[in-house]
Amino acid sequence: MNEFVSAGLIGVSLGAQYALLALGFTLIFGILGVVNFAHGGFYVVGGYAAYGFGAHFGLPYVAAVALAMLVTGAIGYLFELFLLERVVEDELATLMLTLGLYLVMSTGVLVGFGPESPQFQFPVSGTLRLGPFHLPLENLVVLAVCLTAIVAVYLLLYRSDFGRALRALADDRQIASAQGLRPRLLFPLAFAVAAGLAGLTGALVTPILSLAPHVGDPVLVTSFLIVILGGLGSITGSTVAAFLVGLVEAYSSVYLGGSAGALALFVVVLIVLVVRPSGLFGRDVRGA
Amino acid sequence: MPGSTRHGITRHGDAVASVAVLVLALAVPFATSDPFVYSVANQIMVAIPAALSVHVMLRMDLLTFAVPAFMAIGGYAAAIAGLNGVSDSFVLTALSFGVPALVAVPLGVLVLRLRGVYFVLVTFVMTEIMELLLFETPALTGGSNGLVGMPPTTVLGIELADNRAVLLLAVAVAMAAVVVTALVTGHYRRSFAAIEENETLAASLGLVVWRRKVVGFVVAAGLAGMAGFSLVNMLLTAHPTSFGSASAVTYIAYAVVGGRGWLLGAIAGSALLVSMSNLFSNQGQYAPGLFGLLIIVVVLVARGGVAGTLADAAARLRRPATPAGNTAATKFAAAAPLAGGRP
């Protein structure tokens, strides 16, 4: 029973991390129509930035995480403004550009910090005892921060003018532009928000999981899986799917072991894609 | 629309030039015995069928990430046959084309309903599943150990054991891939173009779109399988890590950077990017970043890819009077007054 509950908590906190990652990924796809292959790169840069600000400048962890989010957001802003914006209508070109950015970013990290995993520890440790259950504190902290961030993103998208403008542009770029919304101003900001979310997740999670230059690859794969399950461009769908994937991953690693759980998950996703391409919560998306 | 104008270079010319380039490549093993050149040339010959696989799918406006999955099927099929006493190169090449092509028939019927980003994602997931399957079926694929110890392949009973012979075989396989691609894309040229331009319109005009798409998908799978055979033959081992989903993007980069819509583009892109990444590897840890920068620059500066940009430049040299006269509309506008002055 104890095992079941703690696996459940790990699943939920994994789900919260995945939700943050997938939110950024699906935001970029939903609004710009761009499949962002650099998403895992922002996660890695976020992790290393937080580590660097802490280890080299002696900043407290909370400040380092906030700065990491700002740094990744700024990279995303500049990338969208100066490079991606020129080819944003061309699916292939945007794919190649984000791929190029990913390679450049992971090389930057490798050159700057070396290939070995640095000593990057989460500042909170220990477990919370609730009756018979042991809950690791670090997971609880990450869960709380992620949930707060998810709520913040929801408020930003559904309760602010910025969010309304972005959703209008996602619905119909031409009409929204005719109404006076300026994609050239808003798209870089949207990209910055998405990159910042990936950076925040990286800064929060890498001290618990692991930090190395290549940890972005599985992040991209997981983001893919979640947005397929939830429906491309659907914010609610990807949040729900993120928790599903987190729970499945946690339980299958406890009860099945090895890569059998991952294999099962992939097959489920494949079936979902073929049977119901718009995902569990999706609506029809452009170009499909 | 990319692919609608060909700048005076015909499809036929593209195919002939592509085969000619590979005939010239046959001379490489005899011109030098530098192991570095052999290694780079061999990698290029592995890359060409893989890039052609991407090319065939792009001709139908489908972006595929499934190339490594089918490479794995072709490579492992050849490796398993090799371990069971089949050593004839023709048989192995045919197997490496045929087995993935057969697997692609039912898969294609299933997934070709999808378009755009959904097709990208489903092929990406297929490659992920394939890599996991290779690890999970050790009885057949050797699991995480992979398959090793294949005997050298043979041609008419002669063993192809040294580096030169292995490279020659790789060139021959790449040439076969070019010929297959040229025949298929030439034969289905109009169908593929119609699907690329407007699939719904093509279907409403009576084209059985899904059947053409399955043909394209099956051929693309076979081409990828040939690349897998060359790769396994070069490395002397079949291992799951050779077929990871990350490599799918590099094959796409070869086709796109070289110039989508051109057979020569797939060849030029493979040659350029493989050589550059080998050159960059002198720079050690900077190599992937330089590769990434190169891709960014080509995408931003040379939108038609290497082949498209060169063809544009050639067309401009030939007709200096009409620098922007490549679109059908301006050609029509220029021709209309001469054709009798009708509005």
Quick structural summary:
By secondary structure, chain A is an all-alpha fold. Chain A contains 11 helices and 2 strands; from the N terminus they run H-H-H-H-E-E-H-H-H-H-H-H-H. In chain B, a hairpin with a 2-residue loop joins strand 2 and strand 3 (158-160).
Describe this structure in words.
The complex is a heterodimer of chains A (288) and B (343). By secondary structure, chain A is mainly α. The mean pLDDT of chain A is 86. Chain B is mainly alpha-helical. In chain B, α3 packs parallel to α8 and α4 packs parallel to α6. The longest helix of chain B has 27 residues. The radius of gyration of chain B is 21 Å and the shape is globular. The N terminus and C terminus of chain B are likely disordered.
Topology:
The complex is a heterodimer of chains A (288) and B (343).
Chain A: H1 2-32, H2 39-57, H3 61-82, H4 91-113, E1 127-130, E2 133-136, H5 137-159, H6 161-171, H7 173-178, H8 183-205, H9 216-230, H10 235-255, H11 260-275
Antiparallel strand pairs in A: 1-2
Chain B: H1 11-25, H2 28-31, H3 35-58, H4 67-83, H5 89-111, H6 116-136, H7 138-141, E1 147-148, E2 153-155, E3 158-160, H8 163-187, H9 189-197, H10 199-204, H11 209-235, E4 237-238, H12 246-258, H13 263-280, H14 287-301, H15 305-318, H16 328-335
Antiparallel strand pairs in B: 1-4, 2-3
Helix pairs in contact in B: 1-8, 3-8, 3-11, 3-12, 3-13, 4-5, 4-6, 4-11, 5-11, 8-11, 12-13, 13-14, 13-15
Strand order across the biggest sheet of chain B?
1-4
Summarize model confidence as the mean pLDDT of chain A: 86
Specify Rg of chain B, calculated over alpha carbons. 21 Å
* Overall mean pLDDT of chain B: 85
H/I helix tally of chain A: 11
Q: What proportion of the residues of chain B form beta strands (DSSP E)?
A: under 5%
SSE run of chain A: HHHHEEHHHHHHH
Read across the widest sheet of chain A, the strand sequence of neighbours is: 1-2
Rg from Cα of chain A: 19 Å
The arrangement of helices and strands of chain B along the chain is HHHHHHHEEEHHHHEHHHHH
Work out the largest interface and the residue count of each chain: A-B, 47 and 44 residues
> Based on helices, strands and strand pairing, what is the structural class of chain A?
mainly alpha
How far the N terminus sits from the C terminus of chain B, by CA atoms, comes to 26 Å
What's the number of extended β-strand segments of chain B?
4
**Quaternary status:** heterodimer
Shape of chain A: globular
Question: End-to-end distance of chain A, in Å?
Answer: 45 Å
